[in-house]
Amino acid sequence: MQKIVIFDMDGTLIDSKKDLTISINYIRKANHNLDPLSEEFVVKCINMQVRDLPFLFYGTKSYEQKDRDMFENHYAMQCIQNPYLYEGVRETLEALVSAEVKISVATNAPTQFAVRMLRHLGVEDMFDLIIGADKVKVSKPDPEMLQVILRHHHYDSTQDEAWMVGDNSKDMLSASNAGIGGIFATWGFSPQSEYPLSIADPKEIISIVGI
User: How far apart are alpha carbons 66 and 33 in whole angstroms?
Assistant: First the structure.
């Protein structure tokens, strides 16, 4: 029997809102001469189940190539300036790995940024897989990202257990769509939850998984 835990990244494993906001505001100013957004507004937009981020961030109907290129270039360096692991995350990951629980990351962020940030924070090597939106055709809440990870581990729903840990509705819907458990994290970007299995401390995952 295998136990598999899949983590969202931003707002679940790490607090990245400062650097995300800095890069978004850099593009707003440089390409659109717009006033800066607050960190709180950026997080609210990212966590919307239905959202129009190009309009919310840059006032455009869709992402313009110049904005995409500038963001990727700017965030490639900015993303490791201020991120930090939430309290209890490192200890929880270490406990899961020690108990031979398979852990992976499924994030709607580009894989290159996820790997860079997790490596910077010294936890990249703990994960079996780190899957970003660029590795699949459809990102969360579609289950494809989770299914890639489950297939990697030859997951058998009749004998294995698997959970998705995340901080927004897209994570919980992706878990439901993949047929696995959803654990809502309230320590990060989303302090409020209406989901039945919600936790306020990463270490609670250890007892839920049963190790």
Answer: 14
